[in-house]
Amino acid sequence: MGAELISIFIVAIFIENVVLSQVLGLCPFIGVSSKIDSAVGMGLAVTFVLLMASVVTWSVQNFILVPLQLEYLQTISFILIIAALVQFVEMVVKKTAPALYQSLGVFLPLITTNCAVLGISLINIKKGYNLIEATVNAGGAGLGFFFALLIMAGIRERLDISELPETMKGAPIAFVTAGLLATAFMGFSGLV
Amino acid sequence: MNPLQQLTKGFWKDNPIFVIGLGLCPALAVSSSLTNAIGMGIAATFVLIGSNMMIALLRNLIPAKIRIPVYIVIIATFVTIIDKLIAAYSPALSASLGIFIPLIVVNCIILGRAEAFASKNTVLDSLLDAIGMGVGFTIALCFIAFFRELLGEGKLFGHAIPLFKADPALIMIMAPGGFIVFGLLIALKRLMAGKGEN
Known about the structure:
The structure holds 2 protein chains of 2 kinds. Chain A is mostly helical. Chain A contains 8 helices and no strands. In chain A, about 70% of the residues lie in helices and about 0% in strands. In chain A, helix 1 (about 1-15) runs parallel beside helix 7 (about 130-160). Chain B is mainly alpha-helical. Helix content of chain B is about 65%, strand content about 0%. Chain B has 9 helices and 2 strands; from the N terminus they run H-H-H-H-H-H-H-E-E-H-H. Chain B has a two-stranded antiparallel ribbon with strand order 1-2. The mean pLDDT of chain B is about 85.
């Protein structure tokens, strides 16, 4: 059991990295990766929401939708849960930890439309994980997102001061860099 | 803007993917083959037409404060419909697109057009806008998929192409290939538009 959980965790971080291998959550990956500070904020916020969303959507799916045979409402209910959850987290953080809110504040509303959150929630159901496995998978995916964003931000801060052809500046070079980074991450596939 | 311009602006000039930079996740995730690209394009266009028309129809009834949740519910409804339709009539496509069909809900193109266009324009204009953006999205997906399938598998629509068949670069149909092809294509689009960043 323990070994299985560790393997799910490692696979979620490195081998099936949410951004570089599953291609989810690209908008914040490209949009918020130009500075290391904001990359850290976004990475933490996404990890936190992913964990909470996975627990809640898993419970709703298995305790409400399946017993009542309402599985066709999965998409609608999941996206509403995530939107409500993000709003709720924003309010709680604002009241209890103003300093954290200052640093995360701007990123929180954006997370509703981060497809990594809905994507991981759906994958948890699809793979038939139990609640603990789903939580571990979400934690791993969140950390994977965090690492990918951090590495990318580091590279892009360096790219800013290099001489590039005019047409490659900004988005094009960011994507080519992401491609090379994803190639490097493929090297982890023999790990588990 | 006349109706024809309304319809065609999304095809190339204001292409949602290459120019506006919306909806990137599906663009890279399902563009490993032309068949997937067209399937995804049709599904997203259907949702776009449905949600744009519905929102334009209800634009005076939706209270401004809760408009975003209302838009999301409308979009999610159409996504559920297309999800079940594809699963019933084309199980193979449903299996290969996987979670990317329900993920159309969070495709920023659809919410973006609802907020930026359908909430302020008539039903007919919104329909034309939806078709234009949907076709533009499909064109962009096919464009990426053309290079990835040709270079990565030596095939087009699953048919082998003589010159490329021998030794395909498998990496092109995997995630890294998607990033690299997409990056080079935006650069190409910029070069053709004759300008650099901004």
